[in-house]
Amino acid sequence: MHEKRHSIHIWLYQAIVLALVALLAACGGPTRPTALPASDNGYLLTVPITASDTPEGLAQRYGGEVIAWLGEQAILKLSSQAAAALQGRGVSLQNTTLQPNATVRAPATALGYNSWAGGFNSWAGGFNSWAGGWNSWAGGTSTIPALPSENRFQFMLTKVPQAQALARSFGQGIKVAVLDTGIDLAHPQFVGRLAPLGEHNDFVDRDGIPQEAAGTMYGHGTGVASLILQVAPRATILPIRVLNGDGAGTVADVISGIQHAINMDAKIINMSLGTTENNAALKTMVDAATAQGRYIVASVGNTGDSNITYPAAWARSGNGQQFLLSVGSVSSALTMSFFSCTGTVLELVAPGEGVAGAYPGLRYAFYRGTSFATPQVSGALALAMTETAQGNWGTLESRLWSAGSPISDYRFINLVRFLQELPEAPRKQALFVVGNTNLSAGDAALRTRLESIGYIVTVRADAASMSTDAIGRDVVVVSGSVSPGNVSTKFRDVATPVVVMHWDLFDEMRMTGGKAGDRNTQTGQTQVTLLNNTHPLSAGLPGASLSVYSSADALNWGKVAAGAVSVASLTSDNTRSVLFGYDIGTLMQSGLALHRRVGFFPSSTGTTRLTNMGMHLLEAAVTWAVSGN
User: Fold this and answer.
1) Is residue 27 in some structural domain?
2) Is residue 615 part of a domain?
3) What is d(CA 557, CA 577) in angstroms, rounded to the nearest whole number?
4) Residue 470 to residues 14, 459, 478, 586, 595: CA-CA distances in angstroms?
């Protein structure tokens, strides 16, 4: 039934596009190039042009087809026969460059694997339906579209949810061209997120329908485009097909794709592809795009050596180098992926192993390769472009680099620091209620962590704090260092997210009952049991026992109402929740939650003992409380 509905969608899409293409042609719209014979890639000829030259005149003079018109130069595609005939016709080739039309590929991982580490057949079935999943991508009710739980841990490392909690526009109005194998145009993740139909292009089948086609790289472009939207969920995707279903194409089609992206005013061009040939015509086209301030984000390749493919290999050279970014892959353990190319021209790295993305046919899949690290950087650029003035866009590469964490000679992207590097850095306000404004080591560590994820922190002593202090704040964080009687019910009825870290306030906040067995603290603990690793509060960490303290300390716990989501519990008793939350409007022990409420486990001293996993949970707790996810 899904396949039938999918076919109907594509049939309707094709009918609309063909009608629109006919209308555009009548109005002088973009033309579609004619195909060379399938067995003949032909040649590329780069020639100087004068004010009197026209594309039609050059095509007639050289016997080819103009695929790029760049002001002072033009690039033509010629058949092998036309190239051989030029000199015989007495045509001058002075000041021109003639090169074979080289092959371009989506990178395949080393040791003979393709980008899926299992081949096409492994994704042919068994994956979750999109019905009921990721529904906020199609216009759901969340303030910020929900991230897939499968990517939550990797994205916590790159600070995607933390950055989205700070962001204001989420890439709205930024067009990102995806030069790839095409995409599944009917996939629910792309609803409302694609450029107008008349802007699409397919340089493989020579039409305006860049739909994925069967082959060993089936789903490649769909996965790439979906990862851009996971980072910048309101960006616009411009699908441009330049690779066939096996991930192969030609430099000529990539040049045509870049030219089309420029014509359609794409601000970012994602190229999860490359060629081993240092092709002058492709360099001319890339330089033309970057000279206009358009970002090209390119994967470095998956051969596991220093043979970085082009255009990524040009990332540190030329006048427009600040607009050309090279991207490699790391594991979730923040080690270089064995398949990722490395070398002096590699700039940025992002998670490229086991990342989940859309897959054709209402499904998703787990992807591997530098191809899938690259769109995360494209998404980061789109996210930042809507948070700063256009006059600052030229500095985004240097800011992305300086905000990153060093891994070897490269930088691992950090989206929160990246946004904070912007002149108009988006910030949010946190009220931090403590036992003493002369902060203890634990409270100082907590304030520092809040500041590191983009919050301006105002500190109030518990006795001096008032419910009106929550007005204008994005979150209230109540430390475990407070005296419960000095806080009591002050923040119970505020329409502001509240994160509570003292067990004896859980009942005052209506989050648990008030009896002795309803909430307390458990000493001598280092671990918790993760009960739910799909909720945003879980930070994407794996299930079962989780070490949250580097040495033993106390854990706050409570027995929660049915309306709560319980993410973690004491290892000795899964009815005693140590990390739990109430969404807006859910039923607590009495009354409805006016805003999100989170009960969090660290004691006043425990915050100094939190492991990296414990810190991920801390960031997830504040982020979920604030974001509306």
Assistant:
1) no
2) yes
3) 5
4) 54, 12, 11, 21, 12
Are β-strands 475-478 and 428-434 bridged in parallel, bridged antiparallel, or unpaired?
parallel
Same-domain pairing of 278 and 167: yes
- Dist. CA 235–CA 387, nearest whole Å: 13
The catalytic residue among 371, 465, 569, 603 is 371
Task: Record the pTM.
Answer: 0.89
**What pLDDT score does 187 carry?**
93
The answer to whether 502 is a known catalytic residue is no
Would residue 220 show up in a list of annotated catalytic residues for this protein? Answer: yes
Q: Who's near 27: CB < 8 A, 6+ residues apart?
A: none
In this structure, are 147 and 278 located in the same domain?
yes
**Number of separate domains in the chain:** 3
68 membership: H or E segment, kind and range: strand 65-69
Q: Which CATH number covers residue 47?
A: 3.30.70
Query: What tens digit of pLDDT does each residue of 258-280 get?
Result: 999 999 999 999 999 999 999 99
Residues 179 and 250 in one domain: yes
Q: Provide the 3-class DSSP secondary structure of residue 164.
A: helix
C-alpha 262/C-alpha 267 separation (Å) is: 8
347-401 pLDDT, tens digit each: 999 999 999 999 998 888 889 999 999 999 999 999 999 999 999 999 999 999 9
Residue 283, both tokens: 């360099």
Largest CA distance in the chain: 98
Question: How far is residue 49's CA from residue 55's CA, in Å, rounded to a whole number?
Answer: 10
Among 79, 115, 180, 202, the active-site one is: 180
Would 9 be classed as within a structural domain? no
- 63 & 131 share domain: no
Q: Are residues 212 and 287 in the same domain?
A: yes
Q: Is the alpha carbon torsion for 173, 401, 300, 334 positive or negative?
A: negative
- DSSP per residue, 289-343: HHHTT-EEEEE--SSSSS-PPBTGGGTTSSTTGGGEEEEEEE-TTSSB-TTS--S
User: Are residues 2 and 362 in contact, defined by beta-carbon separation less than 8 angstroms?
Assistant: yes
484 shares its domain with 402 = no
Catalytic residue among 187, 200, 220, 535: 220
R_g of the chain computed on alpha carbons: 27
User: pLDDT tens digits for 88-139?
Assistant: 777 777 788 899 999 999 885 433 223 333 232 223 222 333 333 333 333 3
The confidence score (pLDDT) of residue 364 equals: 85
Same domain, 395 and 520: no
Does the residue 2 lie in any domain? Answer: no
What residues contact residue 486 under an 8 Å CB cut-off, 6+ apart?
462, 463, 465
- Whether residue 311 has a cis bond before it, omega within 30° of 0: yes
Strand 410-412 with 348-351, pairing: parallel
- pLDDT, tens only, 50-97: 999 999 999 999 999 999 999 899 999 999 999 888 877 777 777 888
When the pLDDT of each residue in the chain is averaged and rounded to a whole number, the result is: 87
Q: Is the per-residue pLDDT at 8 higher than 50?
A: no
Q: Which residues in 586-623 are b (16+ Cβ under 10 Å) and which e?
A: bebbeeebbbbbbbbbbbbebbbbbbebbbbbbbbbbb
Whether 180 is catalytic is yes
Identify the domain containing residue 187 by its residue range: 103-420
